[in-house]
Amino acid sequence: xxxxxxxxxxxxxxxxxxxxxxxxxxxxxxxxxxxxxxxxxxxxxxxxxxxxxxxxxxxxxxxxxxxxxxxxxxxxxxxxxxxxxxxxxxxxxxxxxxxxxxxxxxxxxxxxxxxxxxxxxxxxxxxxxxxxxxxxxxxxxxxxxxxxxxxxxxxxxxxxxxxxxxxxxxxxxxxxxxxxxxxxxxxxxxxxxxxxxxxxxxxxxxxxxxxxxxxxxxxxxxxxxxxxxxxxxxxxxxxxxxxxxxxxxxxxxxxxxxxxxxxxxxxxxxxxxxxxxxxxxxxxxxxxxxxxxxxxxxxxxxxxxxxxxxxxxxxxxxxxxxxxxxxxxxxxxxxxxxxxxxxxxxxxxxxxxxxxxxxxxxxxxxxxxxxxxxxxxxxxxxxxxxxxxxxxxxxxxxxxxxxxxxxxxxxxxxxxxxxxxxxxxxxxxxxxxxxxxxxxxxxxxxxxxxxxxxxxxxxxxxxxxxxxxxxxxxxxxxxxxxxxxxxxxxxxxxxxxxxxxxxxxxxxxxxxxxxxxxxxxxxxxxxxxxxxxxxxxxxxxxxxxxxxxxxxxxxxxxxxxxxxxxxxxxxxxxxxxxxxxxxxxxxxxxxx
Length: 592
What we know:
Helix content: 10-25%
Low-confidence stretches: 1-71
Oligomer: single chain
Number of strands: 33
Distance between the termini: 26 Å
Strand content: 25-35%
Mean pLDDT: 86
Radius of gyration: 23 Å
Number of helices: 7
């Protein structure tokens, strides 16, 4: 979520709404954990979440991971000690956390608190049987700061940690490991934070000057080299070119491997034979038929958008700079059809670094006077000459779901959540409401039609990946109430809106009071069967019960009207809330 940082430094059970994460009442009690916490979960009640609406799952005997010895902190050099002391002065006296959105007492409360790494640890299947199609690994990425923040901290700033559930023959093993980015390794060796938090570290001219001076001194004395990357790789994962990548928008991808016993290993920063020398989106799109991956990068300096692709072997094409996007937009995601790549220029943009320093505030801000646009460009374009832009007032996309062509390519259809009150994206996520819309673009006439598919607050939505870039029927979306916590999952039938304008939700599963999950992911029951239905498969996700401190991995039947939970795995310790996940088949893991 932080493409700005690289360029800047180098130039779901029914839920009763809980107090918003960013602005709880002043009398509320907040819990925060340091990184080096106990491996054993908090005291667990004997009453587990009601995962089936009419069936109670018995609670198994408690278990905990194997005992571990915490490593001794490294001995700091004099320059490192000096710079750490200066950081403490800045964080304590010059720029202490001034807003709930960057105050660790809020942003790292409850299950947002970080955890330590966990070696491969066997889990207990406490309900049902894990289907054979889940043999492989479900991996979820998310922020997990390795050091307790000494100053302002935004949710997007944490070090990437992967939580991988390796499944084989009905048995499951959980492993949690940091992505060993250059940033992580430098700070781990130093024993403290070295590279500043971009989303929360530059609040006004005094704070920016102080942190900038310390950062420059660290570079001059050789503590870190920004050309080696400053990203967290904390956003998502992708599998293409026979490689598995952990992704964050501020850096190159990091190649990852998962062993037979479930161990996670960071192979290293991957530049595709020197052809990718700048950052890349955390949401590349992989064509299920060709194996090609389509991607882009964006930033605060022209060209603000650059489009490129990889063939099925992972060989990168030439960049296609898009100069017709004339202002820096926060372009987190995009979509592809069989003919086009579809981008959105929204009201959320990158603040000018000079204005940000002198006026304070986050690197990303909203411009209510800007008219959002959708741009389409042929997938195999060699330049931007065929790029077309269409004004779409009030349409602010953060995550795309899918897109396809109709009428021989004369019409482009995209399904995506439209972020209402986009000005709250960075500082008041609890006030965000996302409405899933179907957008139709007549390429010849330029007419854009929009139809809401549901009034619910929905985001982090997925489809059967075999239908990516092609016309599909079903969408599985996370229910925010409020975001960033996810209280359930719903299934939408997007064809319902073709006949009338009623709500398209056809199935749902709520997680229960104070139970929250993550982004759902669809796994086909028999991906090699061309006769299988689009929804013939399972929805998987991690779910955490804040009442008991217990986390589980659940498997839901995607065809059932209530998304029935057919299997559940008790995890040996809690899995913090995070961002995006991916399921990788065993056959694909074998080829890494």
